[in-house]
Design brief:
single chain; alpha/beta; L-arginine/glycine Amidinotransferase, Chain A; 7 helices; Glycine amidinotransferase; transferase
């Protein structure tokens, strides 16, 4: 057992796959609000996800773990805690936790280091505990592993813009996009905040999306923490930016998949192109009713894919058009039934954390360009 991963495409040898057990519909909090009136969870209500949905999600997660193991990939799993219990600190109390299906939100592997992100949802404050048994096992097995945790934020009211959601929902799309461009969103700059899933790893270059869960101070903390990397602050034209891995998706050196519904900063595109990268716009998802029940995910979860190596990629089984597009780009596509997992926090990439990929640190962007 070892820890090593510098990008999202080198051959995968060990991976963490999440679990749906005990996942909760979150109670409203400063950073997030869930509103599912058609399913009995209108804004202000919360509670466990329906048992039949949890069972269906776990069935697909377990089958995915078996599928990966059959391809020679070692699989680890988290240990769920009781997410229905209240979460509290000396500064605040929240009715429940959330779950441990999307480990990608909490953990990122950079080289021989696994870093625990800050997390800005109060409901996810103790979620890191689910992964501690795996991390402790890795720490004991690999003498070169670095186990790090970003400063735990206080998440007092000072970290959030008061009344943000009520105001934001009244704005036009153009006004919302203007706010996104200025990064004038729900988080203040009181303290460093970031989700690990807002970081895209390309060897020496780390691209960090400013979003509803990642602020500038979080990017600054990452820049100081990884002084040997180029840490880039990026934004996309998206009214509800949340995690980069359904927007800007590396496939292999020289090829990145882009969600065209969320245009990238032209300077970012140019940075890739002057370094001989091809930026390909992804086809639209197969279904715009991606998850009809209790889902906070966009249909663009379709491009939330997992590379097994530079030529092999796991894609949700119903996304036939995307599979055909990737096949045309020279990829072997592994179809994975995963629709039932979406309401629990994401797709194939969200549901995993790569612990060990073969390969070393490389500079894929030798040419500087603009502000990058």
């Amino acid at each position: 057992m070892r820890v090593n991963s510098w990008n999202g495409w080198d051959p995968l040898r060990h991976v963490l796959v999440g679990r749906a057990d005990g996942t909760m519909v979150q109670a409203p909090e400063p950073a997030v609000q869930r509103d599912f009136p058609a399913d009995g969870f209108p804004l202000g209500t919360y509670g466990p996800m329906p048992e039949e949905m949890t069972a269906a999600a776990n069935e697909q997660l377990d089958a995915f773990a078996v599928q990966l193991a059959a391809r020679g990939v070692q699989v680890s799993r988290p240990t769920p805690i009781d997410f229905s219990q209240p979460v509290s600190t000396p500064d605040w109390e929240h009715p429940t936790g959330f779950g441990c299906m999307p480990p990608r939100d909490v953990l990122i592997t950079v080289g021989n280091e696994i870093l625990e992100a800050t997390m800005c949802y109060r409901s996810r404050w103790f979620e890191y505990l689910c992964y501690r048994p795996v991390l402790q096992e890795l720490f004991e097995a690999d003498p070169d592993m670095r186990w790090e945790a970003a400063p735990k934020p206080r998440l007092t009211d000072a970290s959030f813009v008061p009344g943000f959601w009520n105001e934001y929902q009244t704005l036009s799309k153009a006004e919302q996009l203007a706010r996104v461009a200025e990064h004038d969103l729900v988080l203040t700059e009181e303290e460093p905040l970031f989700d690990a899933a807002d970081i895209a790893r390309f060897g020496v270059d780390l691209f960090v999306q400013l979003s509803l869960v990642t602020n500038r101070k979080g990017v600054d903390w990452l820049r100081r923490h990884f002084p040997d990397h180029r840490v880039h602050e990026v934004t996309f034209t998206n009214t509800h930016p949340l995690h980069i891995d359904a927007t800007w998706v590396p496939l292999r050196p020289g090829l990145v998949l882009h969600n065209g519904e969320r245009p990238a900063d032209p300077e970012l595109v140019k940075y890739f192109e002057v370094n001989d990268w091809q930026v390909v716009e992804a086809v639209q998802p197969a279904s715009w009713k991606h998850h009809p029940r209790l889902s906070f995910c966009s249909p663009w979860l379709a491009v939330n894919i997992l590379n097994l190596d530079p030529r092999t990629v796991c894609v949700e089984a119903e996304e036939v058009r995307l599979a055909e597009q990737l096949d045309g780009l020279g990829m072997e596509v592994v179809p994975v039934p995963f629709r039932a997992v979406g309401p629990f926090g994401g797709g194939l990439h969200c549901a995993t954390v790569d612990i060990w990929r073969e390969g070393g640190l490389e500079d894929y962007f030798p040419n500087r360009c603009g502000r990058f």
